[in-house]
Amino acid sequence: MARKIEEENEILERETGEGRSLGGRGGRKERMRERLGGKLNPTELEIEDVSHMHAGHAGVRGNSSGETHFNLRVVSKEFEGKSMVKRHRLVYDLLKEELESGLHALSIVAKTPSEV
Would you identify the CATH topology of the domain 2-115? Predict the structure, then answer.
């Protein structure tokens, strides 16, 4: 399965000139859920696509998927002992591929279980 996804990604990159990952699942929201869920083991994970609220915005133009703006709320023990900046950096690092392939804006609420 992993080899098949790699092959599809290579074809997509050649055809579109973009280095987008298919991740084996549907759209960006599903890939984000898979990536964050797998690495952070969250007790809560809410991902809201708010791209429709930014139609015509510079970050949306030229993006065929339309999945450019998201609100994220994640609760995880992985955030314990980390400042808000370090929590956000961790999320950005995990979503690096998405940010490089059209994810334009991400609003993050990152908490520990004891903070909710």
Answer: GMP Synthetase; Chain A, domain 3 (3.30.300)
* Tally of CB atoms within 10 A around 110: 21
Measured between alpha carbons, how far is 17 from 28 in angstroms, rounded to an integer? 18
Contact 65, 28 (CB under 8 A): yes
pLDDT 10s digits, 73-107: 999 999 999 999 999 999 999 999 998 888 888 99
- For 28-41, b where at least 16 C-beta lie within 10 A, e where not — what string? bbebbbebbeeebe
Q: Is this structure's pTM higher than 0.90?
A: no
The ranges assigned to domains in the chain are: 2-115
